[in-house]
Amino acid sequence: MTDNLVVLLHLCDSLFPIGSFAHSDGLEAATSHQEVQTATDLRAWIDVTLFENLRRVEGPALRRAWEATNQQRFDIVATIDDEVYALRPTSAGRDATRALGGRLLKTWQQIRPHDAVQRVLAQRSRVTLPVAFGIVSAASEIALRASLEGFIYTRLASIVSSAMRLMAIGQHEGHALLADSLLSVPRVATAVLGDDGPLRSFTPLLDVMLMSQQYVQSRLFKS
């Protein structure tokens, strides 16, 4: 199995229509409550997302979904999906990750049909985003490490994209923050590949902000 780079680039492109532009994962609430106001605040938000959520929940879930798909163990895929869903702290967050994952699976099946994707869709129409990414990566013969690094990139880039719409941060500053954060991605991917522990994370501020999103006035984002 190779990196299958051009397919991975297509999967990671913001052009790909899964609707992630409509979700900030609580960053809108954080900026509204002045918890995130500066580039330093934003970098702290990115770091927590990277080293807690992506390192300990979404990355391992993607890895295990990729492995289970290759083994055609779709019962394991369903168990991983249920666990990721249960770990999301709010109903809006749970709905968001399954809405994004469901659109990813359905769109991928339309443009690159594969039996593994169809078998998952036959069991459930929506799955969480990291699980969906793992499924389509395995089905498309994208190497596991490349899949992990590509997914982490999309999640961090989405944060910066949301931040540029929510706070006083320009493109150059935003992309400089992203570039600096991406230096840690290979190390995080290596840690995920060696992690056989349970899915877990501790992100109290991010969780509270996600819970507060529904109370933000004049919202730009769904979550």
Give the topology:
Blueprint: H1 5-12, H2 27-32, H3 39-70, H4 74-87, H5 91-111, H6 115-123, H7 129-139, H8 144-166, H9 171-182, H10 185-193, H11 204-212
Helix pairs in contact: 1-8, 3-4, 3-7, 3-8, 3-9, 3-10, 5-7, 7-8, 8-9, 8-10
Radius of gyration (CA) equals 17 Å
Rounded average pLDDT: 92
Largest sheet: none
Q: Class in CATH?
A: Mainly Alpha
SSE succession: HHHHHHHHHHH
Share of helix, binned: 55-70%
Beta-strand content? under 5%
Low-confidence stretches: none
The H-level CATH homologous superfamily, spelled out, is Urease accessory protein UreF
Count, helices? 11
- The gross shape turns out to be globular
Question: How many domains make up the coordinates?
Answer: 1
N- to C-terminal separation?
36 Å
Oligomer: single chain
How many beta-strand segments?
0
CATH topology: Urease accessory protein UreF
Question: What is the level-2 CATH architecture name?
Answer: Orthogonal Bundle
What structural class should be given to the helix and strand makeup?
mainly alpha
